[in-house]
Specification:
single chain, alpha/beta, Aspartate Aminotransferase, domain 2, Aspartate Aminotransferase, domain 1, 2 domains, 7-stranded mixed β-sheet, 13 helices, Aminotransferase class V domain-containing protein, Aminotrans_V_dom, PyrdxlP-dep_Trfase_major
Length: 403
């Protein structure tokens, strides 16, 4: 993924009252994104609000395929256990309701290597294909949101091709700006990423890449139907009625911005990765814990185990501790409760050999400084020194239930 030369970035157009004008200059916005992710043709790029919208486009087509008899009732759709919540709900709303059998890949966490994920994917695919069932769609994350893990997506797409999976959709909501993205090299049928998460665009703007010339390209439609229906997905997505399109219009300015940094987006990404690993290791050492995945499976986010003595035993506990850190220590950090039902002896343990159930997800961007991570470190250490447990934040009835 290379920096886009500044002379390829065109000026923004002005609205004319009937919707946004395309940018003036040598290349439109979609062409800039096409170059950014190495798409084969600008017509393969559709601008949408977010990755959830892109998922709706793909899953809507799958639902129609069930409804119209192109897929048999009971054919399978495969997704990762740690798929983003909105995408899971979309799978339920579109394809499960239409008759699909949904099979989840139970990914391990903490994870020690990409091979562990590949092995689980193979096993789940065998379940999905049991009894001669066809696997119509695999939904694969590039970087899972919570817990955050960089998935070996190219390898999983290749497995899908070898095993006869009809189509592969990669939900890469966090990827552009965190990891190199080459959609032709990855080889999925559909690939989406937000540009407002790690590429400095204002919310909300994302893209959906679809392979040119595919048999269903002309059958993909935006779920909000407007005047451009039937003119191709890029046109449909470009105008879905009266709304604020400014986030799409300023994509060229975001590219200008990232190119001001040394090394462009690659330089930003590389430095963020190095720093988040450095800060993650600092926290893990201070807390007597570990990273939730090896550095090779991290982008600009990393999971760090929290001291087990905090006794985080539910999602509610995790949320309450997060809220307390924000209010009392001015630290904002997502906290993940590892709810996988495994035997205690199989759980990852801290330096005291106690099971670790809570993890912070730290991020690094160009504006973060070391002192922010030290504040998090010191806040947690203070809680440990004072003998705090998450039970202190539970309502009385919750304390009785979990006791």
């Amino acid at each position: 993924m290379a920096s886009i030369p500044s002379d390829e970035v065109s000026e923004n157009g002005h609205g004319n009252g009937n919707g946004p004008s395309p940018p003036r200059g040598k290349r439109p916005r979609a062409a800039l994104i096409s170059a950014l992710v190495n798409a084969g043709d600008v017509s393969e790029i559709s601008l949408v609000d977010n990755a959830t919208t892109a998922a709706a486009i793909v899953l809507q087509h799958a639902a129609w395929s069930f409804a119209e008899g192109h897929f048999a009732r009971g054919d399978a759709v495969l997704m990762l256990h740690y798929a983003y919540g909105a995408v899971k709900k979309s799978i339920q709303a579109y394809v499960a309701r239409a008759g699909a059998t949904v099979v989840e890949v139970p990914l391990p966490f903490p994870v020690t290597s990409p091979d562990a994920i590949i092995a689980e994917f193979h096993a789940a695919l065998a379940v999905a294909k049991a009894g001669g069932r066809k696997v119509r769609l695999a939904v694969i994350d590039h970087i899972t949101s919570m817990p955050s893990v960089l998935i070996p997506v190219k390898e999983l797409v290749a497995i899908c091709r070898q095993e006869g999976v009809d189509k592969v959709f990669v939900d890469a909501a966090h990827s552009v700006g965190q990891v190199p993205v080459d959609v032709r090299d990855i080889g999925a049928d559909f690939y989406t990423s937000n540009l407002h998460k790690w590429f400095f665009c204002p919310p909300a703007v994302a893209f959906l890449h679809t392979c040119k010339g595919g048999p269903i390209t002309s059958q993909l439609h935006h779920p909000v139907v407007s005047h451009e229906y039937g003119n191709g997905l890029p046109m449909e997505s470009g105008w879905i009625g009266t709304r604020d399109y400014s986030a799409q219009i300023v994509v060229p300015e975001a590219i200008h911005f990232v190119n001001r940094f040394e090394g462009g987006i690659e330089g930003i990404r590389s430095r963020n990765h190095e720093k988040v690993i450095e800060m993650g290791r600092m926290l893990a050492e201070a807390w007597g814990t570990f990273l939730g995945s090896p550095p090779v499976m991290c982008g600009s986010m990393a999971m760090v185990g929290m001291p087990s003595c905090l006794c985080i035993e539910s999602d509610d506990d995790a949320l309450r501790v997060r809220t307390m850190l924000r209010k009392d220590f001015k630290v904002e950090v997502p906290i993940y409760y590892n709810s996988r039902q495994v035997k205690v002896q199989e759980m990852a343990k801290d330096n005291n050999s106690d099971p670790v159930t809570g993890y912070v997800r730290i991020s690094h961007q160009v504006y973060n400084v070391k002192e922010e991570y030290e504040r998090l470190r010191d806040a947690v250490n203070k809680l440990v020194a004072e003998g705090f447990t998450s039970a202190e934040l539970r309502p009385a009835e919750k304390q009785e239930t979990l006791a």
